[in-house]
Write a structure and sequence with these properties.
The structure holds 2 protein chains of 2 kinds. Chain A has helices at about 20-45, 45-70, 80-90, 95-110, 125-135, 140, 160-165, 170-175, 190-200, 205-220, 225-230, 235-245, 255-275, 280-295, 310-320; strands at about 145-150, 150-155. Chain A is mainly α. Chain A has a two-stranded antiparallel sheet with strand order 1-2. In chain A, helix 1 runs antiparallel to helix 2 (about 45-70), helix 3 (about 80-90) runs parallel beside helix 5 and helix 13 packs antiparallel against helix 14 (about 280-295). By secondary structure, chain B is an alpha/beta fold. Chain B has 14 helices and 17 strands. In chain B, strands 1-14-13-17-15-16 form a 6-stranded mixed sheet, with helices on both faces. In chain B, a hairpin with an 8-residue loop joins strand 5 and strand 6 (about 65). Classes of the chains: A mainly alpha, B alpha/beta.
Chain lengths: ~325, ~425
C-alpha cells in the first residue's frame, strides 16, 4: 500500500459549522445596531462620533498590542469592535473623547490583552473600563445630557430623579428612551430588538437576561420599589442583554447561567436600593470574578457517569482522615 | 439527549445499489474490526472459491474471513492501517468467475446459541462501522435480554447504505426480527430517524399484526446511530461508564448486520461483500454499490465514474466519524459502510482560533460531557481531572468539534485525554 502525499489525514469530524467567532461577533454588532441608531436619534451626531472613536481606538489598541507582542492580529474577529461599541454605549453624550480613548486602552490592553487576549479575559472589558472611568472621571461619567433644539443640555437621569423623590417619568418615555443617560442604555425598545435578534440567531440563550432582569424586578417589588421603573432605568437592559451574556465571562451551563443571572440581579438591586447608585456594572464585574467557580460547580454530570457520593458523606470521610 | 443538526447530503438515498463486477484483485486485511487479528489458513498459490474460508478467528473476540472472489491467493502483504497498527492482508487475484464454494449450504438454527454459532461461522461483525464480532453479542444468555435493538439510524451525512438495505431487503430484515424475537424472547425494535419516512412505513407495513416487533421513530438530529444514544432513545436505559449494552438488557445490531445474517442462514454464503455508499464532493457519480470485501477504494471510485477533481481527503465512513486513508489503494473492509472523497477545498478545515468559552460544545454533547474543561485538563495533562470529567465516556461523535465557532479540534483533544488517562492508570493486574 502506498501513501499519497496529496491526501490530508486528520482527526474526525471532517466537516464543521459555518459559524465562527467573527460571525458571532458580527451578530452582536448587528444586535447593537438599533441601540446605536437610537443613540443618534436622541443624542445627535456627538453620540455617533463617540461610538466611532471607541471602535477605532479599540481596534488600534488591539492591532498595536498584537503587533508589539508579535502575535497574529485578532482585529478581524471583530471582538475589539464589539468592545468599542459596548463601551461607547455606556458613556454620556457629552463625555470627552480623550477620556473615552483612555477607557478603550484600559478595556483592550489592560483587561483583555494583558490576560492573554480573546477568551482569556477575567472580566468583560467594556464593564471593567466603564468602572475604571467612573472611578477616574466621576464628574464626567455622572453628567448626562439630552438633545434639546439641536443642543445637548445636561439633565438628571430618571434614576437620579427617582432618588430625589421627584415625579417619575411616564413608562413609555422611559421605554423609548426620551431621557438623559448613557447613549446606548436609554432606549429599551432598541435593546429588546437586539435581544430578540440574539435569541433568534442563537448567539445567546434566555437564561442570563431573564434571570438577571427577573431578579431585579422581583427584589425591587419585595423592597417596595417600582419594579417596572427599576427595569427600564439605568444600564440594566444593556447590561443584562449584552454585557452579562459575554461568553468568556459568564458560565457555560444553563444552570450556571441562571445562578449568574440571579447573582447579578441581586447585587444590582442591593447596590441600587441600599447604595443609592447604579449597580449594574459592579454586579456584573463581581459575578464575572465568580464565573470560574460557578462553572466548576455546575458542570453537568455526564450521562452514564455514576452519581457522585453525597456531600455529607464525603465531608465525614475527610474529617475521619 | 442533545446533538447537532448536520447537513444531510443524502444524495444517494433514491438509488438502489448496483453490484460492482469483480475487481482484478482484492486485498483482504486480517484485522477488520475490534478484536484479535484472524489466522490465515491458505498459502500463496492456493486456489480459492468465493465464500471459502481463508482465515480462522484469532480468539473469542475475533471473526473468520472468507474469500470475496474466486481465484488464486497471490501473497500476504503487510501494511500500516488507518489506526496505526501494522496488519497483514491476503491478496487474492480474481479469475473473474466468482465461482462459489460448492460446499456452502443453508443453515438452520433453533436456539440463541446456534444463532451465535452461525454468526461466528459466517465471519459476521457489526457492519455499522465499529466491527464488533456479532457472535459475541449474540452469545448473550437470552434470559438477560429484554430488547434486541436494530440500528436503522443513519445519521452521518452522505451515507444511505443502511437506508437502502431497509428498503430493498425488508423481507429479510423482518424475517430476522421474528427470529431474534423468538430465540431471545425479547422485544425487537428497529430505531429509524424520522427523516426516513419510506423506510419507517415499509417496515411498519411488513410487521403489522406481529407482537413484539416495533419501529421506533427517532429525532432527526445527529447522532442517533450511536449505540448509547440508540439505547437511551429506544428504551430510556443508560449504559454506564465501562458497561456494555447487555448490562442493561439490550443487544444492538445494525440492520445490515441482521440482513447479512439472514442471508447466510438462507444461502450459506458467508460475509464476502457489502453495500456501501460512495459519495463526496470529489466523486463523479455518487451511488450505492455492492462490492466484494477487499476491493481497493480506487477500483470502487473508478466504477463510480472516477473523480470530478483531485480528492483532498478520502474517508472510510462519513464526514462526522470517518477515518481518512493515506491512499486510495486501501481496501474496503467489512466495516466500511461508505467511502467518501472530498475535493481539495472541502478537505481543508478552518484553522482553530482561541476558545471563547461559549459552552456550545458542552451544551450539544449528547452525553453531557464538558469538552472545554477537558481541553484545559489535557493541556495540563491532569489525569485526575480527566477522570473526574469522564473523558472515557466520549464516543467521539464529533458534535463538539462540529459546533465549535472557534473550530477547535475537540474530538482529537478528547482522544488525547483518553490516552493520558490510560497511560496514568495501567489496566488492572498491571505493574
Amino acid at each position: 500500500m502506498t501513501v499519497n502525499e496529496q491526501l490530508s489525514v486528520s482527526s474526525s469530524p471532517h466537516i464543521v459549522t459555518k459559524n465562527d467567532t467573527r460571525r458571532v461577533m458580527l451578530d452582536v454588532l448587528i444586535a447593537l445596531l438599533p441601540a446605536v441608531v437610537a443613540s443618534a436619534i436622541f443624542y445627535g451626531w456627538r453620540a455617533l462620533v463617540l461610538t466611532a472613536v471607541c471602535v477605532l481606538a479599540c481596534n488600534l489598541f488591539e492591532f498595536g498590542f498584537t503587533k508589539l507582542t508579535r502575535r497574529p492580529t485578532t482585529i478581524f474577529d471583530l471582538s475589539a469592535s464589539v468592545t468599542g461599541v459596548l463601551l461607547s454605549q455606556n458613556l454620556s453624550a457629552t463625555f470627552p473623547i480623550w477620556m473615552a480613548v483612555v477607557g478603550c486602552f484600559f478595556a483592550i490592553v489592560v483587561v483583555k490583552q494583558l490576560f492573554g487576549g480573546i477568551g482569556k479575559n477575567f472580566a468583560n472589558p467594556a464593564i471593567a473600563a466603564r468602572i475604571m472611568l467612573f472611578l477616574c472621571f466621576a464628574t464626567e461619567m455622572n453628567s448626562f445630557a439630552v438633545l434639546k433644539e439641536g443642543k445637548l443640555v445636561s439633565e438628571a437621569t430618571p434614576f437620579t430623579l427617582s432618588l430625589t423623590g421627584a415625579e417619575p417619568l411616564p413608562y413609555w418615555k422611559m421605554f423609548l428612551g426620551f431621557h438623559a443617560g448613557a447613549i446606548g442604555e436609554t432606549c429599551s425598545l432598541a435593546l429588546l430588538i437586539g435581544l430578540v435578534y440574539l435569541l433568534v440567531r442563537r448567539v445567546i440563550t434566555w437564561h442570563i437576561p431573564v434571570s438577571f432582569v427577573g431578579t431585579v424586578a422581583l427584589l425591587s417589588l419585595c423592597c417596595g420599589a417600582d419594579p417596572l421603573e427599576q427595569v427600564l432605568s439605568g444600564g440594566l437592559l444593556i447590561g443584562a442583554i449584552f454585557m452579562a451574556t459575554d461568553y468568556v465571562t459568564s458560565p457555560a451551563s444553563p444552570l450556571g447561567k441562571l445562578i449568574f443571572g440571579v447573582g447579578c440581579g441581586a447585587i444590582t438591586t442591593l447596590i441600587r436600593l441600599a447604595g443609592h447608585t447604579e449597580g449594574v456594572s459592579y454586579a456584573i464585574l463581581m459575578m464575572n470574578l465568580l464565573c470560574p467557580y460557578i462553572d466548576k460547580l455546575t458542570i453537568r454530570r455526564p450521562i452514564g457517569a455514576p452519581k457522585p457520593p453525597k456531600p455529607e458523606k464525603k465531608a465525614k470521610e475527610e474529617t475521619a482522615k | 439527549m442533545s446533538g447537532v443538526h448536520v447537513p444531510h447530503r443524502k444524495n444517494t438515498a433514491g438509488n438502489a445499489p448496483t453490484r460492482m463486477p469483480p475487481p482484478a484483485l482484492v486485498t483482504i486485511p486480517l484485522s477488520m474490526g475490534i478484536g484479535a487479528p484472524s489466522t490465515p489458513i491458505v498459502q500463496p498459490g492456493e486456489k480459492v472459491f468465493l465464500g471459502q474460508k481463508i482465515a480462522e478467528p484469532g480468539g473469542f473476540v475475533s471473526a473468520a474471513i472468507f474469500a470475496s472472489v474466486s481465484g488464486t491467493v497471490k501473497k500476504t502483504e503487510t501494511y500500516r492501517d488507518v489506526f496505526g497498527r501494522v496488519v497483514s492482508a491476503l491478496v487474492i487475484e480474481s479469475d473473474g468467475e466468482m465461482a462459489p464454494d460448492p460446499s456452502l449450504s443453508p443453515v438452520s438454527v433453533s436456539s440463541a446459541k446456534e444463532l451465535a454459532d452461525a454468526a461466528r461461522a459466517c465471519g459476521l461483525v457489526g457492519l455499522g462501522g465499529a466491527g464488533f464480532p456479532t457472535s459475541v453479542k449474540l452469545a448473550a444468555d437470552p434470559a438477560k435480554v429484554d430488547y434486541v435493538l436494530l440500528n436503522g439510524a443513519e445519521c452521518e451525512p452522505y451515507i444511505t447504505s443502511d437506508t437502502r438495505t431497509m428498503l430493498d431487503r425488508t423481507e429479510e430484515l423482518v424475517a430476522g426480527m421474528k427470529l431474534l424475537r423468538d430465540l431471545y424472547s425479547a422485544s425487537v425494535v428497529v430505531g429509524i430517524e424520522r427523516n426516513k419516512p419510506e423506510a419507517i412505513k415499509k417496515i411498519r407495513d411488513a410487521i403489522a399484526g406481529e407482537t413484539g416487533l416495533s419501529v421506533r421513530v427517532l429525532p432527526g438530529s445527529y447522532p442517533q446511530g450511536g449505540e448509547k444514544v440508540l439505547i437511551f432513545n429506544c428504551t430510556g436505559r443508560v449504559v454506564g461508564e465501562g458497561k456494555l449494552p447487555l448490562d442493561v438488557g439490550c443487544i444492538v445490531l445494525n440492520v445490515s448486520t441482521t440482513v447479512e445474517l439472514m442471508k447466510y442462514l438462507a444461502t450459506g454464503m458467508p460475509l464476502v461483500e457489502r453495500c456501501l455508499t460512495v459519495d463526496g464532493s470529489a466523486v463523479a457519480k455518487p451511488q450505492n454499490v455492492i462490492v466484494p470485501i477487499g476491493t481497493r477504494m480506487q477500483d470502487v471510485f473508478d466504477y463510480c465514474g472516477g473523480f470530478l477533481s483531485e480528492p483532498g481527503k478520502i474517508l472510510y465512513g462519513g464526514p462526522m466519524m470517518g477515518i481518512p486513508v493515506p491512499d486510495a489503494s486501501f481496501p474496503v473492509m467489512k466495516t466500511t459502510n461508505a467511502i467518501v472523497a472530498l475535493n481539495e477545498r472541502d478537505a481543508i478545515l478552518p484553522d482553530p482560533t482561541p476558545c471563547i468559552r461559549c459552552g456550545k460544545c458542552a451544551n450539544t454533547c449528547p452525553l453531557h460531557l464538558t469538552p472545554f474543561a477537558i481541553g484545559d485538563a489535557v493541556k495540563k495533562k491532569d489525569a485526575g481531572e480527566l477522570a473526574k470529567l469522564k473523558v472515557m465516556l466520549c464516543m467521539e461523535c464529533g458534535c463538539c468539534s462540529f459546533i465549535c465557532p472557534a473550530h477547535r479540534p475537540l474530538v482529537q483533544q478528547n482522544k488525547l485525554g483518553k490516552a493520558i488517562l490510560k497511560a496514568a492508570a495501567p489496566p488492572k493486574g498491571g505493574k
